[in-house]
Structure formats: C-alpha cells, structure tokens
Input
Amino acid sequence: MRSLGRTALNLCSVSLLLPLALAGCGGEKDDFDASDLDDELAGEVKADSTTNRTVIKGGICAGVPIAGSFVKGKYAGYTFVADAGVKINLALDATDGRSDSVLMLYGPRNGNGTWPKRLAMNDDFGGSTDSRLNGVALRKAGTYLVIAGEYRRAAGTFELRLDVASPATGNASDPSCKPAVGLSLVKARDHIDGAFLTPATVAADATRIYLASRGNGKLFVLARDRAAGFPLVETIEGDGTRLTSITNLDQELLVTTETGVVRVYRKGSPLTLVTTQAIAPRGFSSHGAWTGNTLLVGDGSAAMAGNSSTVFVSPLNEEDGAVEIRSDLSEVRRYYPAFDQYTTTAFDRATGQARGTLKNPLTLGGTLGGVSIYADETTLALFIAGCCGPGVSLYDARTLAPRATIDRSWANAVSFHKGYLVIGGEDGGVDLWDVAGTTPRRLASVDLRQLTGHTGIEDIEIRAVWTDNYDDLIFAGSSWGNDQSRSLDLPSFFVLEMTGVR
Output
C-alpha cells in the first residue's frame, strides 16, 4: 500500500469526526490510493458509489459482535435503526492476521432507499490495521449503514461491533435485535436477621418468598410484592437448629435441618407445621431438590442435585450419599456412590444404578475442594464454591458430555432462567451469562457491595440464588457479614431483575 494514500485517508478519517466536515469525503473508486483520496477530499466522487458496491449482509445489534467475512472486490454492509441524538462507537478488527480493515458509516437512508451521505470513515486506528469510529453523533433518527471493507478489497475475516456511547437509554440496533440484556438491583432488604449460607436456602412461589437461615435456624416469609418493597410478613423462630434447604411445593413447604430432620409446613398465613421426621441421622447437607413428586436431599456432607431422570452425587466423606423421599416423608431410594472425593456419579432414577461419572473441578491451586452441583433437565453445572474455585463447568445433563467452562472464580450459586445462567459470587457480585454457544459470554454484572455501600470484604457474599417463571426477578441470599459488620442495617437478601430477556 502507498504511504501517501494511507496518510491522506487518516486525515480524512479525523476530519469526518468534526460536525461540519462530514461531507468532505465521498465514495471510493476501485482502489484506495492517493488519487482516489484527493478526489474524495475535493468532493469529486459520487457520494453513494461505495454503497452501490456494498453487499448488505443483514442487521447489526448493539453490544453483539458480528463475526463476518470481507466481500472480495466489494464491501460488506450491516444496517441498524437509531434514535436522533444517539452517539455510537464502531469497531472493526481483522481476525485473520493479514487483512487491513476500513470502516465507513452512511445514513440516514433516503425515502428512495439510497444512502447519499457518508458520515464517517476510519482506517489504521492508532497505527494498527484495525478501524474505529468513536463518539459519532447521529443527529437524525433513521436507518444507518455500516460498511466493513478490506483495504485491497481482498477476502478475509473480521469482527464488527456497535455500541451505544450515550445516552444510556439510546437505541441503535436492527429492529430484529433482541433488547440488550442486563441486570438491575430492585431491592436490598435489611432488618432480616438471617444468614443464607447455602444454595437451597431461598425459594419462592407466586405470592411469597421463603428464606431458611443456616445461621440461626429462623424461617422468614416475605410478600412477593414489588410495590410494597417485599415486606417481611412472618418469622418462625424455630428451636435454633440450623436450616440447610427449603423446597417449595404447591401446598406445602419442606425444610431440612443440619440434624437430618425434614419439617413439613402447610402454606397459608401463617405457615402451619404439619409434621417432622428424622430421615438422616448423620444430618442433611446443604442441598435439596424437588423433582417430579419426590424430594432429593444430601445425606452427610454430600453434594447432590437431580432432575426428572438423574440424581448426581459427590461424596465429601465416606458414607455420604443422597436420599429420595415423598412429600409424606416415606423413603423411595438411597443413592450412595463408591467413595471418591474427586468424582460426581450420575444415577438413573428409574433403576437406582450408576450410569456414569465425571471428574470434579479442582481449586485454583490444583487441590481438592468441596464441589457444588446444580442440575436442570438439560444442563449440569459443577463448581467449587467460594474460595478458590476457578469457574463453572457445564455438561449435558443427559449424556454427561462437556459443554463449556465459564471463567468466573468465587462462584457460590447458579440458576438458569430462559436460557441464561445466573451466578452469585463470594465477592458480592451477581452475573448474567449467555451460555447458548460453546463460548459463554458475560452479558451483565452487578456489584452489590458497591451498590449498597456495604463494601467490607465479608459484608455481602451471595450464597443462594433463585429464579422462576413468574417473572424475571432474581432472589439472592447473603451470608450477612461477620461478627464485626453484622447488624440489622446490613442487607442479607436482595431482589434483582433481568432486563431485556424474552
């Protein structure tokens, strides 16, 4: 490529970011060289000659990168609709190690379907072969065209990204795009003196939220009433025995204790204790799952989870396992794998026989850690809770085939909602991940310590998350600080909302 042509193109790119100089650069001829650029700067090339050689590939969505291919001898184009006054950023990076990208923006489109005005162009951003257009103001509402070109109009591959720079509520996306997915804090509930230390200590139905405190054995009931701020409507003090899980049924609530007892409450206002029964003399671990018409609970220190066809169990000590019981507390079956702290065993619920094993993840230091397990009908998640797990490993729950690994350390609890994965962390964060493909993407994250001002290292540690199909709310339980920070003014329960999901 010619250095003179390259210098002229960069001057053109800079000038195009100035409001009154946008019309100074027109379309291209067959090659990017000095004479072409002189013509463009002089305004002697028809403004839409480049768009006439552009192959429209489709729409582009704000915040969603496009992996595309340059069109040999032509250009690749992508459209979006923008509000008046929106400022956008565009980034075009060659991904094949040899292409030299050129980025152009046209619009808005005329009533006759043409693109008469080029708004901005960039090449060789920061001395690289990538291209950037930052802070471009779109003064008029309408449809715009992003053009991805290769300097020599050769073949190659690229990644193109569009982002809204301002305002935060501004729109710049193709109409077919899904709304940007995000997370927001709805309510931080204080004056709930409970520590929700394990994944199954939060549950909800259409009208109530239930919290089982492992810290002091209290059972809390909140109204699922957003307008009223999710008020506390009932507290059951109990006998101080620590609670390990809570399971929500249509008419009943099943609560397990650290001493291996199941308590059955009839729903109503107030809750009514119907019966209690000792099931596991060695005590229940921190997991409980209602699948079909039976309850699965971990015996001893076992990690477990289940779905309609499979029970997953990982023992921490010898004789750890899982127990399956009905709502009347009669026992169905027990699942006890061969003792191996490094392995999770999958049992067929129909036969009770083991049908496969998976190696548990190790800590960041490569050592054994207590594994946590989550399962729904399609996905199995294995991770080391708290310090010092490296992330979340996802598997096909039916075949046990690996699906993906999420690089998210300090994960404590997970839940799936509408195809997205919610992760609660020891660091007080809650993340939302897109796990549809082989490479998970973090879509949004909130730092509850920063949002609430309770920034102590142990003030907020998210240990339980709950999602359901009633709405797009996330209910998250915290460890409720330490001996120095714990008080009624410290929130222990949080309501978040997923936005932009369908």
Summary: Residues 3-173 form a domain with the Jelly Rolls fold (CATH 2.60.120.380).
